[in-house]
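Example (one chain per record):
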Amino acid sequence: MQINRNQLHLFIAIFLLFIAPGNNANAETDGSKLFAINCAACHGDKGDGGIGIPLALPDFLTSVTDDYLFQTIRHGRPGRIMPAFQHLSDEQTHAIVKHIRSWGRKEVKLVPGGATGNPEKGRDIFARNCARCHGPLGKGGTGTGVNFTRLHHIPIVAPGLNNPGYLAAASDEIIRTTLLKGRRGTPMLPAAKMGLSSQDVDDVVSFIRSFETQFQKADKKAATPVEPALITVSAKPFAETVDIIKQAISARRLRIIRQHHLDDGLVAQGEENKKQLIIHFGNIQQINTLLAIDPRMGLFLPNRITVLEQEDGKVIVTSVNPLRFGNLFNNANLEHTSKELHQIYSAILEEVSE
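Predicted structure:
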């Protein structure tokens, strides 16, 4: 079978479509069904949380408006796992909002007022009282709602406040109300119990709102496209290429976990193409670190490199491109580890390249 670069890219692109949010081609308008299709995997069937934050908390439902929920679904949280569900129509999005509202019995009551505080004073107050959970820059806690991925003393991961999706959805009144009332069922206490005055709260609201300026000043240039796969042509025959790759893996203190032919299970036993091999490798610490950042990384773990000999004798070596992980999973916390993985894959492929 002749496999070229475009075919490999097409295969990977089709695979990624299967793990992307559904496109709701049937134009479903039932809120409970739409929630089950688009939201429950992260937020739980009844909004009790999971990878995503719990939505059914009474203090949450009484401190956010329908517009906040609508804008959150529409914009998502860039870099914070939740994608923007722009494929949903307004009618579908309103139906999901109505379904979420069905979990609450009390009215939404916001504390009125604008961001009239001092953002510089708010910065200091935030550092003393909020940064432990929300991060020193307000980017949010690390990990996800899954137990093994977060700090054990924090029952849920604090959301990112320094986030364009959050700031587009949350009014000053919503932020102020959340600060003043706190969130029962989470580590967030009411402002008074933290010793904060009404003016302190206004200062923090102004500081959080000041995050918007950095998004307004952000470079608007389109990001350079990142190829979904790393592909190289080996300068060596198939068997020697496989040996070099295994040696390169071991030299980086990574363990070869298993190997199998590309068509294992697709053809009768013994009829596999012996010139198409997938090598799985890694170590427990690396795997645990990546799963703790985002459990969905399990789709790509252990690491794997595929070696294919084509009909013309050319040997192709390919792997997924780790630089795609952050965008694929909308998780900025993967950026550093993705770069490290990219360096490992690139170095191994370079050992056999022409």
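Caption: The beta strands are 229-233, 255-261, 276-282, 303-309, 315-320.
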